[in-house]
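=== RUN LOG ===
request id: a7f3
mode: sequence -> structure
chains: 1
length: 584
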Amino acid sequence: MLRAFFCALDAVQSIAQRPRAIVCANEMPDSSRHVIGVDFGTLSGRAVVVRATDGAELGDAVHVYPHAVMSDELAATGAPLGPNWALQDPDDYIEVLSEAVPAAVAAAGIDPASVVGIGTDFTACTVLPVLTDGTPLCRVEDWRSHPHAWVKLWRHHAAQPQADRITDVAAARGEAWLGRYGGRISSEWEFAKALQILEEDPGVYGAMDRFVEAADWIVWQLCGVELRNACTAGYKGIYQDDRYPSEDYLAALNPQFARFAAEKLSPTLAQLGARAGSLSAQAADWTGLAEGIAVAVGNVDAHVTAPAAGVTEPGRMVAIMGTSTCHVMVGEALAEVPGMCGVVNGGIVAGRWGYEAGQSGVGDIFAWFVENAVPPAYHEQARALGIDVHEHLSALGAAQAVGEHGLIALDWWSGNRSVLVDHELSGVLVGMTLATRAHEIYRALIESTAFGARKIIDAFNGSGVPVREFIAAGGLLKNALLMQCYADVIGQPISVIDSDQGPALGSALHAAVAAGVHADVYAAAQAMGKLRSNVYLPDAARHSAYDELYALYGSLHDHFGRDQRPLMRSLQAIRERGMRASGR
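=== RESULT ===
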């Protein structure tokens, strides 16, 4: 760690001593042009240095957010937060630029002057209120004690009542855009979170000049240019057919919300792969890079991964599997898929429709189980074997036949993103007996997420958007039991991205386009994308056995998610009353 730190410090000092100059990518030989991709995740940010011509990854570094996720109390004051809150500190994102980027350059062993562009991606919808110059409202002393002044992370689900009203009013009015989002608007998205601010803290709402996606805010900090990327605007900001929802519709939600889009959102929309601007002097000091290099338009971690896997054509679904999973694919034609997160023209690559669906809890579910429900004996056994508890549970679970544990689960520990789009739904585990063991539950939870992915695939296939190939990316690729389970459940081979840093590689790929190294994202994907085909093949016998379990999953899914949806919402309401009664 110390060696990496001093190497990074040397890199910063070296570039600081050189005169600042605008870098022209075309003046450098092919082999010496590099780009940097920075992926801002849920708990950390990672930077990767990539050779711009062929996508070779030369060095990377990770910086863990000091404030992580604030879900219980506000770090600035210790004030308690309500159920389903998730906040972050934007200063953590700046630290990623000043820590991870120089460290990645040092790890790559390159001259910082050879970097011709930088691209970034973010979890979405992660949003924050800011002043006209981009200053986050939480940095303003008068507002630091207000939770609504801080960054709302994607998994902030406390705006469900507002999301329900956004959906219900749109359906009653026959708003044409609602079908583009599978018929329901999520509490994770921008309008629901903004409406929550207005209705719970109108002072913060009035004080904010802009409500901005973190994906766009970080670009603003890098080059001083305020704009909106087409991806987050379309998927998370209800921007369809070159416009936001009408002021008349917004006023029907709340009269004071009528001018939200006109006054609080950036009027400038930018396409993916475009150059947002040039690296500012301040950002050059943060990163140790040359002032004036290309800064690419921001993007979403999932969507930017598709071209990193070389996927720019229809029929191939890319699942970015981590704390949550986002499923994206491109199509030639517009279709409305029930429960999808959105379909956006140019939302992944220019000239094609980009589709998105997702599961709001996957890796988070496994982590919750290990942290809260695994007996000490399993931890001791894992230590004795020299492996972590996840590996130990996976190995024990893999030794069982399909269905041997007698369990079935619903993967809603963090609500349901697709296809039910309701974050007040919660997890279910059926079939436990006194003989049930922890590794059996762990396997059942893995299977539940595979069943949830199959639900999404079925929805797309049934809507005329066929999924001919399933491609996986993200941190969960390391779990062979999970990957084989997915192949067996969906009954299709699974290809995998040939990179441990798919989103960061995708951001670097877009930086190469912004810097002029490649003509467009299609060309960059062909040159820099990495994919290993058919790594996991389905077993016919296991697939047949999973068909029976999937039918049971479907029955539970529809019972709790449709027929008895009020049951789980009632539990949430009772929980909130209990927390208030106990002073929390």
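=== NOTES ===
The first strand starts at residue 34 and ends at 40.
Residues 1-26 have pLDDT under 50 and may be disordered.
=== END ===
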